[in-house]
Amino acid sequence: LREATADVLVCPNERELALIGTYVCGSGAYRLYGLNDCGGCSRKAECTTDRGRRVKLRGAASTRDASPCGR
């Protein structure tokens, strides 16, 4: 779910995944969002098996300040 007022995503437990960056790859641009610590979350199993959660949204609105992939 995307928040309209801020550049964040909101997880099923209402926690915000902040924008990490915008990247351009051969297949196009994407924005990467993340939350580092999901350890105490009661709904963690719905989102990730890792320590935190990352989400890529393809088709980034602006690539002006984008970084190349892998950086």
Provide the fold topology.
Blueprint: E1 8-10, E2 16-25, E3 28-35, E4 53-58, E5 67-68
- Class inferred from helices and paired strands: mainly beta
Biggest sheet features: 5 strands, mixed
**N-C termini distance:** 26 Å
Order of helices and strands: EEEEE
Number of E-state strands: 5
Helix content, binned percent: under 10%
pLDDT < 50 runs, ≥5 residues: none
- Overall outline: elongated
Mean residue pLDDT = 81
Rounded Rg: 13 Å
Helix count equals: 0
Strand coverage percent:
35-45%
Summary tags:
single chain, elongated
Quick recap:
The protein has 71 residues and is mainly beta. Helices cover 0% and strands 41% of the residues.
Give an overview in words.
The structure is a single chain. With 71 residues, the chain is an all-beta fold. Helices cover 0% and strands 41% of the residues. The protein is built from no helices and five strands. It has strands at 8-10, 16-25, 28-35, 53-58, 67-68. Strands 1, 2, 3, 4 and 5 form a five-stranded mixed β-sheet that branches. A hairpin with a 5-residue loop joins β1 (8-10) and β2 (16-25). The protein is elongated. The model has no long low-confidence stretch (mean pLDDT 81).
